[in-house]
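INFO batch 0412 | record 1 of 1 | parsing
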Amino acid sequence: MKTRLILLASLSAVLAGCNQNTAIGNDREAHLDPPAKASSIESAASALQGVATALVKPETMTDADIAAIGGDQGRCVFRLTEVGFPTFVYEPNGSGFIKLNGKLIPVEPDGADRFTSGGLLVTTQMLDDEGNAGLQAQQLIVVPPGAEDELGYRGYVICGR
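INFO prediction complete | emitting tokens
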């Protein structure tokens, strides 16, 4: 009997922490949680300094991040899912922003569908497919500085809203 009580108490303690997911997009009570602050804007060299290339993966941007980069009006917005938060925001044939290592990194055009910042390379490629909501499928390829391999992500893009 005593073992059961200890087991139930332990299980209750573990489950109590299950509602503490702070990832953006997670339903939270606005009156309890402060609004998200924008990530800092840094060059790729600064943002990725000392970070193992295998750990560099695109992250989702918050509404505060989008505001910090000047919004998404007239830009293309790449999302990993059709309803997800943006991961890469860019102007066709212009500059863009990607979020890596918790930082917003500006990238400049370096050819068609190709963006760079220091040793960071980001490319996009439209795919001949669309999602259930009708968004155009796109592939995002990220090559961090010094990486031996590229990282490819399939997602969806909408341009010029």
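INFO post-check: The CA atoms of residues 27 and 113 lie 35 Å apart.
INFO record closed
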